[in-house]
């Protein structure tokens, strides 16, 4: 199986994307997909005695899904299998603690009894990091869903890890603030999981990564220690800033139970423009001009190649905002507090890029409906790419100057191998690129009619080696989980991996936290 | 036939995708720092005027017109970016008495006379007060034929054929110019204002006028007593089975 991740379509039972999501029971077990991964025999097997402890701790209600003493596979299956329908574990027990104290007691007991665990939030990850591989106990945070406090002066929100992202953002919207993260799965994903996986998304260009916005964390270590670092301070130079180990740690050293996060003021004035450009060089010039002239109001700079837009037209029958075909397209969003100020800046910018012939053509949304329609030219891309059967997806960070070269190189490589074409004898439809250009984050996508070993052989390790040569990252915002575990070496040196290992061993000496994953 | 002189009145309203909120005093809808756009029906009007020209119907001039606060200029620029040749803005400050449909119709009559327009295309209603009267009153004042809720407009020689949306179907009517047409949603799909056209629109002529320039005095005849939001939707209830549903319906007096 290729390690490419395929969001956001849920494959159906035949492995293509036309029907309803596949029932969990038809998903192949991860242990069968990766026969080289063996259950570590140091871990204890779940017994009635363990079960009794958890039931006494959490009560026998819905907080304990017990698949050991009775058949609860129907209830447990959604926690065992991932959203992409690629990974499925054999867990027999799901625990849903309601407080940090309960998480602490659970972990201490598991650590003392050598029971492996998998922390789980909304289970919307794309790399199989949030589901068990064998019989690890799933610890799901969904019952910890309280907003603890919000300070309207500082904009600092303190909340349980299990609060759903959209719930948090709606709460903040009422108070004219915004959660500094937005992504497609916002209706299901939890903020604790977002922090644990250091999710990226659409607002990163403006508000920066979670490493910058998360001010404090409350987490539980495997031995039950509660790391109470839930500070609401922007400045705190007092030694090692350990919370960063948990941000993007993917639940390998502890479970995040609460976060405090800095939330900016929600912008009253939003504008969106969409351009057609002659080449990727022109897109880079447009990005520089946007940074220069729009500076603090620039809130998104997205790039889509002409092929993605053509597929939107042919595949989804979408009417595109611009007439004629352009090799590249960019979408720019500005958000600010004052419509007049923003409009004036935007007008000057638009005049400049038109007159300097940086962009060939473009449109500016005149109302809210047009704003949504222009965004759909970007957000509709992942969906349409799955239209023909499947997609190989790579989420890469690359130097911005080389960002698109990899798309051309991969396209040449697959074309030369005779794998790309217009009819059924070719597995690949096309090779396309789009993404958060402002963050130098490219989504390299290969929409296919069927998954094909020959295509996979051409893609890997070619793509990873290409990224390594440019000192890029093989996973810009999706994380590593189990999917990218074998490829971490392309983005991290042996020394770096060794240092990570030391930290893992220090905080999780028995290795019960999310085993078999990237570390 | 000499070229058509088309007048397209447009109105600046709260963006239709924005949820309006009533102010605390319950006297009006909150408009400060709320996104405003062109009334969607007026977008259809301007698009249709431009399409007539593109279909080689002889069009001498398309004039966009708006009466409203200084910011109405923005939507006149949008109308010109879509294809109007020039704009006229009658400034009515927000603190001044606001025009009612009859006042607007009287004003438009004067504009039609001074611009020598022979076709007025306007939205069938504006989405803020939903009165849906201006076009009809204008036709009455001018004593011109009118076709409301147009979903198709054809012009050949001096004859206009309009397909109208009516309850349960369509009705096709025919009249001679001059004429008033009001637009409905199926008429067309308005284009995006392209950047080159937005630039060009900035250089097009935009005349600023006042009600006094048209010698119009149209004081409001209505007084707004109170503005309230619709009652919030009540949450639903879940029932276990059919019997439960029946007893619930009985309890609510629905059966």
Structure, described:
The complex is a heterodimer of chains A (519) and B (255). In chain A, α10 runs antiparallel to α12. Mean pLDDT of chain A is 91; it is low at 13-18. Chain A is globular and about 75 Å long. Chain A has helices spanning 30-33, 48-58, 73-80, 100-112, 165-174, 191-196, 204-207, 210-213, 243-246, 280-294, 306-316, 339-355, 368-379, 381-385, 405-416, 453-459, 462-469, 494-507, and strands spanning 64-66, 93-95, 117-120, 137-140, 147-151, 156-160, 214-220, 226-229, 255-262, 269-277, 298-305, 328-336, 361-364, 390-397, 432-436, 441-448. Among the domains of chain A are: 147-262, Uridine Diphospho-n-acetylenolpyruvylglucosamine Reductase, domain 3 (2-Layer Sandwich); 269-379, 2-Layer Sandwich (Alpha-Beta Plaits); 382-478, 2-Layer Sandwich (Alpha-Beta Plaits). In chain A, the strands form 3 sheets. A 7-stranded antiparallel beta sheet of chain A has the order 13-10-12-11-15-16-14, sandwiched between helices. A 5-stranded antiparallel beta sheet of chain A has the order 5-6-9-7-8. In chain A, strands 1-2-4-3 form a 4-stranded mixed beta sheet, sandwiched between helices. Chain A is an alpha+beta fold. With 255 residues, chain B is an alpha/beta fold. Chain B has a single domain, classed as Rossmann fold (3-Layer(aba) Sandwich). Chain B has 6 helices and 11 strands. In chain B, α2 links the parallel β4 (59-68) and β5 (86-91). In chain B, α2 (72-82) crosses α5 (195-203). Chain A binds chain B through residues 268-270, 273, 275, 319, 321-322, 339, 343, 347, 350-351, 354, 359, 361-370, 372, and chain B through 15-18, 33, 35, 37-38, 40, 74, 78, 189, 192-196, 198-199, 202. Chain B: InterPro entries: ET-Flavoprotein_bsu_CS (IPR000049), ETF_a/b_N (IPR014730), ETF_b (IPR012255), ETF_beta_N (IPR033948), Rossmann-like_a/b/a_fold (IPR014729). Chain B: Keywords: Electron transport, Mitochondrion, Transport. Chain B: One of its GO terms (molecular function) is electron transfer activity. Chain B: One of its GO terms (biological process) is fatty acid beta-oxidation using acyl-CoA dehydrogenase.
